[in-house]
Amino acid sequence: MDDAANIPASEAPTALPQAELDRLTDQLIAQLKTVYDPEIPVDIYELGLIYKVDVSDDKVVAIDMTLTAPGCPVAGEMPGWVQDAVMEIDGIKSCHVDLVFDPPWDASRMSDEAKLQLNMF
After folding, report:
1. pLDDT digits (tens, 9 = 90+) for 75-118
2. Are residues 92 and 59 in contact, defined by beta-carbon separation less than 8 angstroms?
């Protein structure tokens, strides 16, 4: 039996309206851009360290991110920085950040803006 069928309609999460999802997406990007890799003067979003961001209908955020190198000295701290930044957005209920290393990060994941900041053109 499907458990979802047993949830009263008043308790079932409703789909986020597109306008709300667009607003949250813009806010998430803005917040992710406030987190920097301490060894590189570029934010983690432009560096391409964010692999996936999911927002559930009840505004729970799940993020997959990586590091520029698996041995990064802030590996234990950076997911917390990301979580703290996301939780500053009004209405977000919770945020979970997972570090992933597949596929491995490389400079091709960087935005043109990041490459320009690092004189890589």
Report:
1. 889 999 999 999 999 999 999 999 999 999 999 999 999 999 98
2. yes
| Spatial distance between the Cα atoms of 42 and 46, rounded to a whole number of angstroms | 7
Residues 32 and 21: beta-carbon distance below 8 Å: no
Give phi and psi for 104, each to the nearest 5. -65, 145
Domain around 112: 15-116
Gap between the terminal Cα atoms of the chain = 57
CATH number at residue 31: 3.30.300.130
How many other CB atoms are there within 10 angstroms of residue 22's CB atom?
A: 11
Residue 10 resides in a domain: no
